[in-house]
Write a structure and sequence with these properties.
With about 100 residues, this protein is an alpha+beta fold. It has 3 helices and 4 strands, in the order βαββααβ. A hairpin with a 6-residue loop joins strand 2 and strand 3. The protein is globular and about 35 Å long.
Length: about 100
């Protein structure tokens, strides 16, 4: 398993960010290999993000090359470069 976290600053209001996230939800549900996605709100003003749980590095790589991934900065009005971290899961506490 692979965990990917993304945090970004948006020029949009929280209501706009949530509306866009809900509209795009079916597209994310259809991504092969995406086990789970958590939409997050960091404590900083105007910051949002996501925590993605992937079944494999190959699934993550395919997603990152997709039009859906490329559309994120424009869709969410991202200001500057997002903070992205990708880590391998060594083991999980619960199954």
């Amino acid at each position: 398993m692979i965990i990917q976290t993304i945090k970004f600053k948006s020029q949009l209001t929280e209501e706009e960010v949530m509306r866009i996230a809900r509209e795009r939800e079916p597209q994310f549900k259809a991504i092969p290999g995406l086990i789970q996605k958590y939409y997050i709100k960091p404590q900083q003003d105007d910051h949002y993000g996501g925590v993605y749980i992937w079944d494999s590095a190959a699934s993550l790589k395919a997603y990152r090359a997709s039009d859906l991934a490329a559309s994120i900065p424009k869709a969410y009005g991202i200001i500057g470069a997002p903070d992205v971290e990708i880590v391998d899961v060594i083991f999980q506490l619960r199954k």
